[in-house]
TrEMBL record:
Species this protein is from: Sporosarcina limicola
Record carries keyword Transmembrane: yes
The organism's taxonomic lineage, starting at the top: Bacteria, Bacillati, Bacillota, Bacilli, Bacillales
TM annotation in the entry: 6-24, 44-67, 79-99, 120-138, 144-161, 173-191
Coiled coil residues, start to end: none
Signal peptide: none
Keywords: Hydrolase, Membrane, Protease, Transmembrane, Transmembrane helix
Protein name: Membrane protease YdiL (CAAX protease family)
Gene Ontology MF: a single term: endopeptidase activity
Keyword check for Membrane: yes
Segments forming domain CAAX prenyl protease 2/Lysostaphin resistance protein A-like: 87-180
UniProt superkingdom: Bacteria
Pfam families given in the database record: Rce1-like (PF02517)
Biological process annotations from GO: CAAX-box protein maturation; proteolysis
Amino acid sequence: MAFPYVWKTVAKASLFLVIPLILFRSTRFPFLRLRNTDRKSIRIAIGSGIAIIGIIIGAFVILMPYIDIDALLIDIANKGVTATVFPFIALYILFGNSLMEEFFFRGILPALFGQSKLRLILPSFFFAIYHVAIFLPWFSPPLLALAVTGLWIGGFIFQLANERSGTILPSWIIHMFADIGVLLVGVYIIYFY
């Protein structure tokens, strides 16, 4: 379905943020009490985030010969992402998109599973599957499987980062660092390729 980026963003905000805020308002969202996050969890999240930037850039450099960058550029151009609007989209991805995804995948969904170990596995799996639609035109099936597996493992790590503090701040920090890694690859592709 070819909808403009802005309408996809509105739909995502409705599904990942507005509807859950209405449906689960009685819970008062304890995972949003970001001030309860201990300093050690924040330090670990920052260190993990820096490592993830290196992993993302390293994976891109290694896998670059197998990525159809021309097709990727055509796909993002068709979605309205140009060199002019990229900085604005990057800011949205870094702050808005990452917060919505953490709220939904590391806050709402795990809370629905309570203390079951499924809270670590299934939301991470759904997080990975959700990203398939984004990556589908960019990668061959083996690279797509690798990307989805990496996202599943990443989502699992994100959730583990939250376990100590009970808030989504650690995973949000790691998520923003991961997005920085992806956006740095985007800068290379859009401006220097």
